[in-house]
Backbone:
């Protein structure tokens, strides 16, 4: 390996690591607030890239119909809950709250898809569609199980993962896609040339990390999410709704996943099932942070990017094995340094 190859692999490691940082933060966010190990996080990545690719062909993406179906199911579940609680007077508000936003977004997508809008508008529309999936999935699949054990929540997450992968094949087909790059610029840095899309990845990742830091440190909703993550029962006692916190956490996770998919769509070919491996690498990064520490997860994400990039040069057939094997010593270390308690029968 000469120095030029070393620099190219380092650039690739930094680009991939920037995406894994975002996915690791989304994984920690959902786990901290809802105790869900959210396996389908990568599906938001694939849906983001594939939805944008479908809009660029002038067609209405299948994710629009998924949003509508989930909205109807969520509304029906909410109506049943209100009737059982004797709060029938709140049913019209429930209809407006659960059905109106998905209907508006779906109508905008149906009208705008054939117009071949500018790439920026298509990206915005994609973010609106895919981000809406997050709260709806939480309402339909996870909120009824909010008080269940972590194992049951994990089983539900696996079921949602397989459902989304199957629906992705139905909506988008088995062919892979690449979306247009945001920038065709080529920036020379000595002997290395950095392309414009990589710059977009770096800048967006840094900006989003800054946004999350501001959101959790300065805003009321961010502090409420931190309170729920620290102590669910205590947060409930002071008037913070864990259900609202879960909805907001899933919305942020869907936004992060969709944004990640849009960013890597021009760099790598995305298939309907590509999100699984991408999401798992974000999960490995989150494990390095103990599913709790954002800075350690960010460091783990960069480490995953480095291992993946350089192992693809020396051990291309085993690069994923190298990355996932890293989780074993990390789990062993976390197990040895943690305090264990006997479970009560």
Residues:
């Amino acid at each position: 390996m000469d120095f030029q190859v070393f620099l190219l692999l380092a650039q690739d490691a930094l680009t991939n690591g920037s995406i894994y940082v975002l996915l690791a933060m989304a994984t920690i966010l959902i786990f901290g607030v809802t105790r869900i190990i959210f396996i389908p996080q990568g599906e938001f990545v694939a849906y983001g890239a594939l939805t944008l690719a479908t809009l660029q062909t002038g067609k209405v993406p299948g994710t629009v119909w998924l949003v509508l179906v989930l909205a109807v199911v969520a509304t029906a579940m909410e109506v049943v809950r209100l009737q059982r609680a004797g709060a029938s007077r709140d049913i019209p508000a429930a209809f407006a709250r659960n059905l109106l936003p998905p209907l508006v977004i779906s109508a905008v997508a149906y009208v705008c898809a054939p117009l071949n809008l500018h790439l920026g508008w298509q990206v915005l529309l994609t973010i609106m569609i895919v981000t809406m999936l997050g709260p709806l999935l939480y309402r339909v699949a996870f909120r009824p199980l909010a008080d269940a054990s972590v194992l049951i929540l994990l089983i539900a997450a696996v079921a949602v993962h397989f459902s989304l992968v199957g629906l992705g094949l139905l909506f988008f087909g088995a062919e892979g896609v690449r979306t247009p790059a945001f920038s065709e610029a080529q920036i020379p840095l000595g002997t290395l040339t950095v392309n414009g899309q990589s710059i977009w990845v770096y800048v967006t990742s840094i900006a989003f990390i800054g946004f999350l830091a501001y959101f959790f440190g300065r805003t009321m909703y961010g502090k409420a999410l931190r309170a729920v993550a620290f102590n669910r029962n205590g947060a409930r006692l002071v008037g913070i709704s864990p259900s609202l916190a879960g909805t907001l956490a899933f919305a942020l996770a869907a936004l992060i996943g969709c944004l990640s998919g849009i960013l890597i769509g021009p760099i790598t070919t995305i298939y309907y099932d590509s999100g699984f491996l991408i999401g798992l690498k974000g999960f490995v990064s989150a494990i390095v942070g103990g599913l709790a520490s954002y800075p350690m997860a960010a460091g783990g994400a960069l480490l995953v990017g480095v291992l993946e990039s350089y192992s693809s040069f020396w051990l291309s057939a085993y690069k994923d094995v190298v990355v996932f094997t890293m989780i074993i010593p990390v789990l062993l270390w976390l197990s040895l340094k943690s305090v264990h308690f006997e479970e009560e029968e």
Q: What stands out?
A: The first strand starts at residue 186 and ends at 189.
